[in-house]
């Protein structure tokens, strides 16, 4: 199940978190960026927050970010200062009990 998210100036997560703390069955998280930082919006960069790594990802239309969803990858998204940031979040699970079934056509 994919989630399309938007962020504008009045909305900004900004809090450091780990995806599995919020969504227990996430094993991997993928983000597909639909627009570009510094072109269509300001702020909204994705930041990994670990003592060993402080990597900043600049969203770019078509860019895909994939990472393991556990405590090894705490992160946050900075507040969008102008424009609107569009991204699709796609969670992956390794637990067959939570896998979606095949669609009925």
Summary, kept brief:
With 105 residues, the protein is mostly beta strands. It has one helix and eight strands.
Descriptive overview:
The protein has 105 residues and is mainly beta. Helices cover 4% and strands 39% of the residues. Strands 1, 2, 3, 6 and 8 form a five-stranded antiparallel β-sheet that branches. Strands 5-4-7 form a three-stranded antiparallel β-sheet, with no helix packed on it. It is globular. The two termini are 18 Å apart. The mean pLDDT is 87.
Helix/strand layout:
Blueprint: E1 3-8, H1 19-22, E2 28-33, E3 41-43, E4 46-48, E5 56-57, E6 64-68, E7 75-77, E8 80-92
Antiparallel strand pairs: 1-8, 2-6, 2-8, 3-8, 4-5, 4-7
3D shape: globular
Total strand segments: 8
The amount of helix comes to under 10%
- Overall mean pLDDT stands at 87
Number of H- or I-type helical stretches: 1
Which class of secondary structure composition applies to the elements?
mainly beta
Weakly predicted, low-confidence segments: none
Gyration radius (Cα, Å) is: 14 Å
Largest sheet: 5 strands, antiparallel
Strand content: 35-45%
What distance separates the N and C termini? 18 Å
The ordered H/E elements are EHEEEEEEE
């Amino acid at each position: 199940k994919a989630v399309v998210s938007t962020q504008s100036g009045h909305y900004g997560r900004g809090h450091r978190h780990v995806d599995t703390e919020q969504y227990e069955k996430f094993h991997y998280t993928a983000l597909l960026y639909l627009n570009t930082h510094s072109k269509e919006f300001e702020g909204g960069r994705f930041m990994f927050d670990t003592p060993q790594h402080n990597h900043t990802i600049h969203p770019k239309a078509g860019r895909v970010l994939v990472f393991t969803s556990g405590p090894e990858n705490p992160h946050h998204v900075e507040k969008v200062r102008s424009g609107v940031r569009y991204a699709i979040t796609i969670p992956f699970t390794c637990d067959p009990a939570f896998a979606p079934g095949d669609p009925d056509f």
